[in-house]
Amino acid sequence: MGIIASTSRKTENSETSGCSSWESVEPEYLAFMEKGGCIEPLVEYVDCKGEAQKKNEDVFPKCKEAKDRLDKCMVAHRDYHQPILEIMEPAVELVVNKIEALFPLVDTVSTESADQPEEGDGPLHVFMNGGACTESCMALEDCLVEVMETNEDICNCTKAFTMLMKCMDAHSDYYQPILDAVYDGEDHYRTLLISALRGDCKRI
């Protein structure tokens, strides 16, 4: 099983932006992690996820302790793992930019009308709650608000995010624009990861 979970997007070409496929670079990733001292918690977490998926169990509660150990190990050796830690930010930024382009904020001052959504309900919020995943979307929103207010780890919202993704996958006919943005971010992350490990792939 691959270390980085694959998305549900099906592509004919296994190459990522001209770089080698993830499968071909996985041994290098494992070697990198082993040198950094975090190979044991990594393998533990991957094995836990694999077992949970085989048994159709919820990965988050089952593997939370294993994931916490992996995160703590990487933070404890941040200087070594920085090359792969820092690439998450541009991947997330890509997703955010794509979603913002799809659902630009409306100037409610100049476009007030009876048809405008309630205050605070931007186009993205309206779209997300207009499909079948309203409950999952609200659960994620509530979780994000809570972690920001309590200054907790945003990873505490992994379960809520996973549930929302599963719901959107099940209703992809409606949520495909959002899914495409997320998948593009994951593809970008893989490209940057391969580049960080090999240094022979041009970054996007």
UniProtKB/TrEMBL annotation:
Alphabetized SMART domains for the sequence: GCK
Region spans: Disordered: 1-20
Residue ranges annotated for the GCK domain, each copy included: 25-99, 120-193
PANTHER family: F26F24.3-RELATED (PTHR34357:SF2), F7A19.14 PROTEIN-RELATED (PTHR34357)
Name of this chain's protein: (rape) hypothetical protein
Organism: Brassica napus
